[in-house]
Amino acid sequence: MVTTYGEHDVEEAMSHFRLEMDAGISLVGVLPGIYPEWLGSRRFTDSCGCRFPYVVGEMARGISSVQMVVASVRAGFVAFFGSGGLRPHIVADAIDEITQAVGSDTAWGANLIHSPDRPDRESAMVDLFLRKGVRRVSASAFMGLSKDLVRYAAKGLSRDANGNVVRQNHVFAKISRAEVAEPFMRPPPAGLLRELVAAGEISHEEAEIQATLPVAEFVTVESDSGGHTDNRPLASLFPVIADLRERIVQKHNYRRPIQLGAAGGLGTPAGVASAFGLGADYVLVGSANQSAVESGLSEVGRAMLCEAGIADVTMAPASDMFELGVKVQVLKRGTMFAVKAQRLYDLFRRHETIDAFSSKDREWLEKQVLREGFETAWSKIVEYRRKSDPTFAVATDKTPRQKMAQVFRYFLFMGSQWAREGIEDRRADFQIWCGPAMGAFNDWVQDSFLEPAENRTVEQIGLNLLEGAAHVTRAQQLGNLGMRVPQHLWAYRPQPLCLGYAASVQ
Q1: Domain boundaries, the chain
Q2: Calpha distance 253→399 (Å, rounded)
Q3: Within a 10 A sphere around the Cβ of 6, how many other Cβ atoms?
Q4: CATH architecture under which domain 37-294 falls
Q5: Angle, alpha carbons 339-340-345 (nearest 5°)
Q6: pLDDT digits (tens, 9 = 90+) for 302-354
Q7: Are 304 and 420 in contact (CB under 8 A)?
Q8: What angle do helix axes 147-154 and 190-198 make, rounded to 10 degrees?
């Protein structure tokens, strides 16, 4: 027989061993208990100051809200505020709220989304993070390093009395390709560091230290997720990135390891357990948390997510990289957003100007999509953009195709805005970023206390996924030892958990 015990149950184990021997029972082995806190890396929880190796991922435009971040930190998780796509003053207010609630030196950060069309936005956001003392950023949608991202990583680097590096700012790089991961794992180019020093952005000492360190010491391997995604399976992608990590760490002889996280498709305990089984130091969960009561998504939007199945997602053109043909994964059930967005992109590819549209396409655009005239929509965009970029209207008036693209992007942008605000009249146009993990989560919580939307708190979602992953991991261990594990031991049903629980899975 195999008996399992907690870490500190040595006396109990020995007592049972003697009783079993006296009864003529052969003891095969003794397994220590499994705690959800131990599923990933102790390095991660120690370095981040959190209890669990679990990250509540950033969901742009405040869907990962202030309330979600605060609740997550108090639950023992790491959390990122969804600052992507929000104006700096809104992000500044959110940072102040979070700091007031849980302090500045706790396990939270904010999203830094790459803005190739507006590098000034990226620079302004880094300025804000440095000024407000945001110690962690989750860098997403980057195809390569940017000057401002390197500036953030290098700022504040120093050495203690023993010569050990003290890093003030931590980059969590979210990647889905090896060629994108590699620059984050290496020291930044020497020329870029010299440029930052010459501009007075960082000191000589900071540049010297950063030249020996990776830009990101936390790299999140993102598979089939909501929003920007390459739809790659985690089981194929993670080992490739892990091998790359090992080669780079050995080549540069880093004194501190690069920690790898797993994200995308994690909506069930088995999914979370499999990510840890691949060697992840931490897991990051997004889509399932979007349905939590603390989410910045509207109540009607969250209700739509709670009805989603694993196949109720699709790819649609992205508003931030529309002209490049980049797509995001969104909810399909209950909304026509993806269909309309794709038709807009097809029209954009075929025509150089709105005047080349057929009367049928023009009528569809103005009556069913914009619900106003093209020029009226354009005037609204000009008015909005003039506030932040005085040259916008003049430059774009000279390029009819760019003008068309901006109007189409306006609709895509508003699709997510309507979803956050819960505008019922625009329900068919909701853009809700969502991956297949949402459907898997809904299937798992069916007929449990977590099925109703009102019971889905970010704390209960996270604790149950972790507790369930510990159960699955224990069943796998027993199976690997040659035990015949009953099928029901592989299943874990959601149950209300409190933060005081500390019992190991036996």
Answers
A1: 37-294, 305-431
A2: 51
A3: 17
A4: Alpha-Beta Barrel (3.20)
A5: 100
A6: 999 999 999 999 999 998 888 888 899 999 999 999 999 999 999 999 999 99
A7: no
A8: 80
Q: How far out from the chain centre does Cα 234 lie?
A: 14
CA gap 464, 38 in Å, rounded: 15
pTM: 0.89
Distance from C-alpha of 338 to C-alpha of 447, rounded to nearest angstrom? 30
User: SS3 of 39, please?
Assistant: coil
CA distance 301 to 434: 11
* Distances 364 to 1, 343, 406 between C-alpha atoms, Å: 70, 10, 17
Side-chain half-sphere of 356: how many Cα atoms within 13 Å? 10
Opening angle at CA 75, ends 72 and 80, nearest 5: 20
C-alpha–C-alpha distance, residues 238 and 437, integer Å: 17
Burial call 176-200: b when 16+ CB within 10 Å, e when fewer: beeebbbbbbbbbeeebbebbbeee
CA atoms 49, 54, 59, 62: torsion sign: negative
Per-residue tokens: 501? 């629980």
